[in-house]
Amino acid sequence: MDGIFYPLSIKEGVNAFVETLVGRFGDQFRAFSSAVLQYVLVPLESTLRASPPWLVLLVAGLIAWHATKSVGRSLGLVALLYLIGCFGLWDALMQTLAIMAVATVLAVLIGIPTGILMSQSDTLRKLLLPVLDVMQTLPSFVYLIPVLMLFGLGKVPAIFATVVYAVPPLIRLTDLGIREVDKELTEAAWSFGTTRWQLLVGVQLPLARPSIMAGVNQTTMMALAMVVLASMIGARGLGEDVLVGIQTLDVGRGMQAGIAIVILAIVIDRISQAYGRPKRGRSARLAEPAPR
Question: Which residue intervals define the domain ABC transmembrane type-1 in the entry (predicted)?
């Protein structure tokens, strides 16, 4: 039966491309990696780890209250974070939070502008959709190999691998949110002499905000899902405890760190979802009939 298949392999081409890339630009990639580590990740992680836990909990509570406008929910989310500290995983939590913050910011800086460009060009959308499909379906270990060759072991390659894995939903949902803006509103804005930039900033992006925030939420959740894999290439944090639990068959340690990751996911999910919902007061005012 094997005789019916024409022999085909892309191994040599891919290997040659990666080796050429590493040979020509390896030093630049490693210099960039060192800069990100020295000027972004290490200062942020050091600040979080040096901050008193009560201050971090207070800031988290204020952010949760600003998002949800509910004191009860905010206190509940703070209590969940406090439980991570009770597990003895507070320092690991700060390390994970620093990596996630940098990865999420990079994903947002890449994802939202790319989604905006996709929404303005059908040709670009047709070109990028297959790329996004590959990014979402390709196993993470496959693109970890070239990332490790370019950046080496450590936290920076973990961040870039996380960005590759987590950015597609944000690009897709940004594009979708802008494309689903009511055509009548767009035509009305054009009729008032609105420029393309004013239309985007004043009409399309505000109306697409729920979809964009849903993309940010999905990107953050997918970034958090990478913490265990990131620990395999040198990133410390909660994922490292899970990995050690697997290696030593310490079920309790792995379970405890897993629960901490779930708690962090719940906290981030509730806050980002709350920011994605339209303000009730503003919606109510828009729904009121105009005075005669």
Answer: 93-272
